[in-house]
Amino acid sequence: MKKTQLPTKICKVCKLSFSWRKKWERVWDDVQYCSERCRRNKNK
Q1: Would you say 13 and 33 are in contact if contact means Cβ atoms under 8 Å apart?
Q2: pLDDT tens per residue, the chain (44 residues)?
Q3: One Pfam family from the UniProt entry (predicted)?
Q4: Torsions phi, psi for 25 (to 5 deg)
Q5: What kind and span of H or E run contains 40?
Q6: What is the pLDDT of residue 39?
């Protein structure tokens, strides 16, 4: 599968689009943030 065909989401903190990653394969439905940094800054 090409990278352009991967599913994407919008980060709740930075509002940028991010793509599916292999490490998120089992939890993709629960992923809300594009990075650990955004996850840590979710309340700011």
Answers
A1: yes
A2: 787 899 999 999 999 999 999 999 999 999 999 999 999 998 87
A3: DUF2256
A4: -55, -45
A5: helix 36-40
A6: 94
Q: How far apart are CA 26 and CA 6, in angstroms?
A: 15
DSSP conformation letters of 9-38: EE-TTT--EEE--GGGTTTGGG---SSHHH
pLDDT value, residue 4: 82
Retrieve residue 41's tokens: 């800054």
Q: Which two tokens stand for residue 8?
A: 């994407």
- Collapsing DSSP states into helix, strand and coil, what is residue 8? strand
Structure tokens at 39: 């996850």
Domain boundaries of the chain, sorted by first residue: 3-40
